[in-house]
């Protein structure tokens, strides 16, 4: 059996996005238990020139389900800003991302192998194949933003550890 494009992308996106849902839940619980303003954390940044938590969560969606949609459309661009950036909306966005990732059939992704697509933004256009886009652009960006979301909540005192981020391992059965 071969390791597929689906295995390399969507399966990992799903595991880590589920972990992000758990991290956000722990964030909510911590903020409530400490009597802190939960909404304030959506604007938190690791440092001044980095984008806030709501951007990181939006990018988790954009570089997972959005990446697959971009390959299908043969074009991918930076994410649009969220209309709602409150904490509950971020949790809902992650839940919707999990749902949407679960709806993707492996064959749908595997059939994209070798397809041409491009990343575009004003003044820049980068040509890719589907697999090169996922492996060298979208997956690294996805994990950067997922890690940054984890780090922001950890920095704000949410009791998170490595196991909260690495998600459930895929172990050999039987």
Strand content: 5-15%
Which parts are unreliable, with pLDDT below 50 for 5 consecutive residues or more?
none
Give the class from helix and strand content and strand pairing. Answer: mainly alpha
Characterize the main sheet.
Answer: 3 strands, mixed
Arithmetic mean pLDDT: 96
Radius of gyration: 17 Å
Q: How many helices in DSSP terms?
A: 8
**Which class in CATH terms?**
Mainly Alpha
Whole-number count of domains = 1
Q: Please give the alpha-carbon distance between the first and last residues.
A: 17 Å
Second-tier CATH architecture: Up-down Bundle
Q: Would you tell me which CATH topology applies? A: Four Helix Bundle (Hemerythrin (Met), subunit A)
Instruction: State the CATH superfamily name.
Output: dinb family like domain
The oligomerization state is: single chain
The ordered H/E elements are: HHHHEHHEEHH
* Secondary structure: helix percent: 55-70%
Write down how many β-strands occur, each being a DSSP E stretch of 2 or more residues: 3
State the shape.
globular
Overview of the structural elements:
The protein is mainly alpha-helical. It has one domain (5-166): Up-down Bundle (Four Helix Bundle (Hemerythrin (Met), subunit A)), CATH 1.20.120. It is built from eight helices and three strands; from the N terminus they run H-H-H-H-E-H-H-E-E-H-H. It has helices at 5-8, 10-34, 53-62, 65-73, 87-103, 106-110, 130-155, 162-166, and strands at 75-76, 116-121, 124-129. It has a three-stranded mixed sheet. Helix 2 (10-34) packs antiparallel against helix 5, helix 2 runs parallel beside helix 7 (130-155) and helix 3 (53-62) packs parallel to helix 5. The radius of gyration is 17 Å and the shape is globular. The mean pLDDT is 96.
């Amino acid at each position: 059996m071969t390791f597929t494009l689906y295995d390399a992308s969507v399966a990992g996106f799903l595991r880590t996005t589920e972990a992000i849902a758990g991290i956000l839940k722990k964030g909510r619980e911590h903020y409530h238990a400490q009597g802190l303003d939960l909404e304030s954390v959506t604007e938190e940044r690791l440092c001044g020139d980095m984008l806030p938590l709501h951007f990181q969560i939006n990018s988790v969606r954009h570089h997972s389900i959005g990446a697959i949609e971009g390959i299908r459309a043969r074009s991918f661009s930076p994410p649009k800003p969220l209309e709602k950036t409150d904490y509950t909306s971020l949790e809902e966005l992650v839940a919707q991302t999990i749902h949407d990732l679960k709806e993707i059939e492996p064959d749908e992704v595997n059939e994209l192998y070798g397809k041409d697509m491009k990343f575009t933004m004003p003044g820049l256009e980068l040509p890719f194949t589907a697999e090169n886009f996922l492996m060298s652009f979208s997956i690294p960006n996805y994990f950067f933003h997922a890690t940054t979301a984890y780090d922001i909540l950890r920095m704000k005192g949410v009791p998170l550890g490595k196991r909260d981020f690495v998600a459930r391992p895929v172990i050999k059965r039987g």
